[in-house]
Hints:
25% of the residues lie in helices and 27% in strands. The chain is built from twelve helices and 15 strands.
Amino acid sequence: xxxxxxxxxxxxxxxxxxxxxxxxxxxxxxxxxxxxxxxxxxxxxxxxxxxxxxxxxxxxxxxxxxxxxxxxxxxxxxxxxxxxxxxxxxxxxxxxxxxxxxxxxxxxxxxxxxxxxxxxxxxxxxxxxxxxxxxxxxxxxxxxxxxxxxxxxxxxxxxxxxxxxxxxxxxxxxxxxxxxxxxxxxxxxxxxxxxxxxxxxxxxxxxxxxxxxxxxxxxxxxxxxxxxxxxxxxxxxxxxxxxxxxxxxxxxxxxxxxxxxxxxxxxxxxxxxxxxxxxxxxxxxxxxxxxxxxxxxxxxxxxxxxxxxxxxxxxxxxxxxxxxxxxxxxxxxxxxxxxxxxxxxxxxxxxxxxxxxxxxxxxxxx
Length: 366
């Protein structure tokens, strides 16, 4: 089936017709071909590549870090959710079976612990880190699993120090897949984690304000190691979450030209309904409020995360790409939004999702 989205407004203000055939973008043009199915959106609605949330908890099995992909996905303007370690090799079959029933595209960073978030100290028992089990999972679900996840914070690793990270990196290298590393409360310290990370790996919660373990804790040494990591191709991901995003750190990073790569939410039921996350649009609005351009904000939730997970068919608004699109407005709305430590930011413009298209199918947001 061929469809046309007429007079779609791109984020630079230009308008084009987007022609969709099947599940792909056939053409972006200013001509007006005769197409049977016309999709019209109101004036003032922007279109971008479909939003990709690189850090979510979209496996409903294990509380509290759980939610349903569609509740945090297409209903809120996100076309692809990437689960960040909720599932390990033991339950990847169950996660996959659930994910394929979702409207939202679901991908996964598999937890390096076989039990995933069944327990909250999943890396305290090193026997649960199994190369063989992870290899089998990747072989079985190569399109769903995009990398590995290691939560490197004191409450998770027990007395194991950086050993889980070393094991995770061995598996990451063998499989040639990126490792996403959660930075939390020390030990281990960020400065001890950074040297292990290689091109394509991801630091999530990059603007957290954990005591003595954020990017400005030991400014001279951490900054040096951080810049070295970025220089060799390590990505910085926001991973907002309940306790992992600070306006203070974000503002200081902007002043010192330490730029993030991807904006993600670390969303699950609790911080969706009770805040401070709520949804991706709210998180994006915070970065507009911090002074980042719309172009930077949208790039960080579309093209960049697609690059990080090596999914070349999404994150692009061009001929040949999958027809994954997000439609949204930018409303003038004076409001106050909190970060994860209770600081407030006055917001003058708010991004609000209107609809999405996933694989050529159109859905209105709630």
